[in-house]
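Tutorial handout. Part one gives the primary structure; part two gives the three-dimensional structure as tokens.
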Amino acid sequence: MNSLKKRDNEVQEHVLQDVDKILMDVKNKGDAALLEYTYKFDRVLLNDLKVPREEMERAYEKADKSYIDALKISIENIKDFHQKQLRNSWIDNGKTGIILGQQIRPLKRVGVYVPGGKAAYPSSVLMNVIPAKVAGVEEVIMVTPPDRDGEVNEAVLVAAYMAGVDHIYKIGGVQAVGALAYGTESIEKVDKIVGPGNIYVALAKKQVFGDVDIDMIAGPSEILVIGDESANEKFVSADLISQAEHDELASSILVTTSDELAKKVQVELKRQIEERNRKEIIEKSLNDYGVIIVVENMEKAIEVANKIGPEHLELMVKDPFVYLGQIKNAGSVFLGAYSPEPLGDYMAGPNHVLPTNGTARFFSPLGVDDFIKKSSYIYYSKEALESIGENIINFANVEGLDGHGNSIKVRLEE
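Part two.
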């Protein structure tokens, strides 16, 4: 468990220094800094940062029908799930002369960071954009790095078009976070930045928090599988590998009550790894941050899981619902042999933007609540204030704030 904590120590001090310098350049130089850093890091010279709407439409029109169909199902499921999270404003006038309430309003403008480079993540587009749209966010701005030809991945463009992204800009890295946080000549400042990225992007989001809101500081991906004697070693191994292939810092853990399952998984992992195209990444991830833990019983297994607080937790046991209520710390829980983690990544509906590095103890998955703000309001009649005024004055006197007390006193004396 301690080795998981050490993943944070991979960050060197110079990374923060680089992040701060880029952010300051974007703040001071605007678009000029964006173009400069895009050329420096992405090796592409751009004349215009914005992706025209027509380009999104063309990508959609030429996309493979099977991909469009998959996106439609995914979008529908994600919408259905997140619409159930919607809250209502409320008002309470149960006491004579007193009205209390809470107003819920969506954020006006949100920035979504979508990783680029070698991999394309249209699923990240859907998971970040759809809850914002369900919440009623007026404007969603997406930023993503261009390829060497200065283009945005077409699969990402199609997902953005179907999810309802309003504007897309071809920038990535720290400079993209800075543009969203501070605004430039081309890009308006947003209220919140969401979306995954590398360590530079994560630290940039951390640095701009306060100028804007952010979703969370996400670390490397992780999965913990609890398996009993009924678990299928092929399923367990495949699921451990599905997270290990993300990157070398990903963590894959099996906690089991069965010695036999532990041995079978060790053998099966070696067999399946040979068939994967990211073999080297998987092997390093499993060697450094993968572990099989054998425990006495399910109570011990759940105790270990709650202590780790994994991003993804699979209950691959006979009666998973029996143990669901005992899970206290997990980003998302997958129940049974036929609910693998990738189901949640792409299609089921619950959000796949989840707390990592044990932060499931106090963070939640991304959702509609991340894209709203709440204001309370208070109304007291003269008579209602008179009934409680002396108590307020006493409070103010205890705190030594006689101006507060006087604000009440002048009304009582009227």
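Part three, for discussion. Residues 77 and 348 are 6 Å apart (CA to CA). The chain has three domains: 2-214, 222-361, 381-412.
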